[in-house]
Every structure is written in structure tokens, then in C-alpha cells.
Write a structure and sequence with these properties.
It contains four helices and nine strands; from the N terminus they run E-E-H-E-E-H-E-E-E-H-E-E-H. With 166 residues, the chain is α+β, with helices and mostly antiparallel strands. Strand 3 and strand 4 form a beta hairpin. The structure holds zinc ion (ZN). Zinc ion (ZN) binds next to helix 3.
Length: 166
Amino acid sequence: IATTASGTHLSINEALKMASGTRPVLAVLDDNGIPLYLGYGERIATPGQRLALIARDKGCTHPGCDVPATMCAAHHVIDWAKGGPTDLNNLALVCDHHHAMVNDSEHGWKTVMLGKDSPHRGRIGWIAPTSLDPTGTPRVNEKHHLAGQIATEIEISCQQWGARAA
Ligand SMILES: [Zn+2]
């Protein structure tokens, strides 16, 4: 069963018929009504997606860049023209300077959404051109995530101190 914005209940078939020719938005909510996922059938990120990007990325995602979120655009990790959706898990905050560096040429940078095999799961990784980094290792920007970095460093220091004390 689907529910319209005005609260009307419809069958899925009726909802799909109504949605044809419109701009579909898919929102997945948790038990408390908090959005877990917001997908949008348009190239431009919605205000809600932009707020979620600000909460997640906090600023430009390029490693070492300190440009704040207010001066960043929403970048498609998989290009919109290549079928990349305007979904949170395919968007990243990127400043104009670093946005211009993303391309398919041999000198271009690539962006990826880091998966569960990464310690930075759910964040954007940047892969340098092979002339800069032949390993192709995705790197994240810690500039806007210092609190987490400091907590990790404190944890490591405590573990080392614990190892020495033992
Ligand atoms: Zn940047």
C-alpha cells in the first residue's frame, strides 16, 4: 500500500500509474520517521538531500580541502549523464576547484563511495591520477572530521599506554 502526501491510501499499481510522468522521490524512513534514504529522479539535489550532505560531509570531500559546505556543490559520484542517480549514496560535497579536477582523463581524479570493506564506510573517497598515486588508494578528507580523528588518536594512545602499562 502507498500513501500520498495528502494521506490517501492507494495500491502500488495505482501509485505507479499516478507517478508516471512526475518527478519521483523515494524516501525510506526508520521506525521513528527519520529519513534513512532519500532518492530523487532529478539531477539537482533536493534541499533535504543537501542538508543530509552537509551533516555527512561537512565540507569539500577532497583530501586536505578546508572549503566549507556553504561553498560546495553536490557532485554525482557516478556521473548523472552515465546513469548515476541523485541519491545520497551517489552525492558528495565538492568545491568548484576540486569539482573541475574530476574527469575520466589520465590526469583526472575519481570519486567513490566507500563500502563496508573500508574503515571510512559511507564517506567519499578520492582516487588520485596514477601519475600522483600509482596505488589508486581512495583517500578521505579529515579536515572536517577532526573530532572523530582526535577520538581515534586518543583511543590509539590509550591502547598504546595500556600495552605499555601491562
Ligand atoms: Zn575542495
